[in-house]
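=== Structure Prediction Worksheet ===
Name of assembly: unnamed complex
Input type: mixed (protein and possibly other molecules)
Chain count: two
Listed entries:
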Amino acid sequence: MSANLPEIRARQIPVQKLKPPAAQKSAPSMPPTPEPSPVRRFLLARGNSALADRGFHWLMVLCALSIFGIVALILWQLILRSQLSWHAFGFRFFYQSFTDPDSGRKMYWDPVNSQFSAVPFIYGTLLSSFLALLLAVPLAIGVAVFLTEMCPRALRGSLAFLTELLAAIPSVIYGFWGFFVLVPLLREHVNPLLVQWLGWTGLFNNDNPTGLGFLAAGVILAIMILPIISSLTREVMTAVPHSQREAVLALGATRWEMIRMGVLRNARIGIVGAIILGLGRALGETMAVTMVIGNTPEIHRSLLSNGSSMAAVIATQFTEAVGDMHLSALIELGLALFIVTIIVNAFAQLLVWAVTRGAPVQTH
Amino acid sequence: MGVGIEVTNLNAWYGANHTLQDINLNIPANHATALIGPSGCGKSTFVRCLNRMHETNPIARVTGSVRIGDLDIYAEAKPVEIRRRVGMVFQRPNPFPTMSIYDNVAAGLKLNGYKNRRSLDEIVENSLKNSALWDEVKDDLKKKSGASLSGGQQQRLCIARALAVDPEVLLMDEPASALDPVSTSKIEDLIFQLKAQYTIVIVTHNMQQAARVAEKTGFFLNGRMVEFDSTHKIFTNPSDKRTEDYITGRFG
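=== Predicted Assembly ===
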């Protein structure tokens, strides 16, 4: 404090010189201006900080633009480095298959002969994500309904916190848990039952003794996307005005009917957004999936079979790619994944905003 | 047809707040009864006790008895059953924004599993006619959302929605306070017509409104009912000094 005082005094002088003539011109009949208070003098000497303000403005613009810059740079690098594969296969990369010259079997991914196709990975990504949604969506909506509509107020905060804590667990930990707990559980107890009861659908074949595979990946993903879907669903449900609930109750609705007609119906677009956002996370999830999906570039109808996903194959093969074409093909997979997840996420955010920002969305 | 309401020793609390104290009154069938009083006097809480909406708030509590027709609604019935017999219109219009006009009106019946389509069409039409909205919306019943209407129309839609389940009593909690004067007068005309078929209890801040639509008026103050009498008597010759002070604008 004491160090600042002399500085204030030093700045008084020019102010005092300027002040009297200005006051005389604008108001000649006014009584003589009293000596300005120390605070006023200090503030008058401050200047308008225009330069600093403009500097701050541009600094923040730069920060904001850097986000776009990073995205653009990633996209540019992915495109650049996947050129080799793109020129070799073109769009066929996304639907072709080959015949293995030695065994005569259908193949999709053959680093040794430099033949690559994205099909089994796209299949694995879509299948595991779809399974995840199938398992997670009902559970997540149930959690959200319980938390917003039924949970005693005292419990609400801690339960919500716990669900959201699930999102903070590193995915490699999920992978560990999946590998050491979930996979044995599926192998010993769940898969045999599925084969026995639902084997006739062709979706559950007893041809994989490991317990790894699409189903394990789907279950792990379901647990991982549960907190995203439930917390966003909770948010959009909370955004539904209380008057909507009262309107339904006043018509003689039970609690479930009130939730269905007064809450879920009004929040449905936001809930769809939350689900798609969960899908976006599931599509790109790498580590946990890699650890439980089995990592074979094959397509099987059975959910109990080994498979692979786009993210998983990149993670497992990137460091040991056996040539430029192999690397380029992996990067092209990455590019496809990047574009798909960006689109899915953007769409989902839009839907969630539509509900939580303004009034309930009109569909008519 | 409407039925009378008999309230005996009604007490209500929000948490520790004793919002209604020893309310006793008889609301006549097929008449409009207005409840007036300053903000926070308990009149809204009172109507919410008549269809057990009060207890949807977890900290709320009620004692005493309310008879609607022959039914003691606290001792002999579940809230869901009572709310099917007692319609309610809220202060702010609250149509269902994701439903068409038609579905808004049919909501109460569909909720309770009413399936007959042809008679549903008829009920929707009659309810909208009774709420004086039919002519304005008949061409886009299923095309437009309930939220696309103006505020006054929305409130009449909410009245139609309440009427569609053919209630015996219609509770209106300041139904016109969010509306412009033209919409307000439409709602008042409506109340005047509806009381032939329904028992109407209307909470209002607007004393002229009470005088225009209601035969009976109750004056609430600080959680107690100070005076309940014919509207004419309340506004011309009230028995209680506090009622007189309120209606002459000395407080409130």
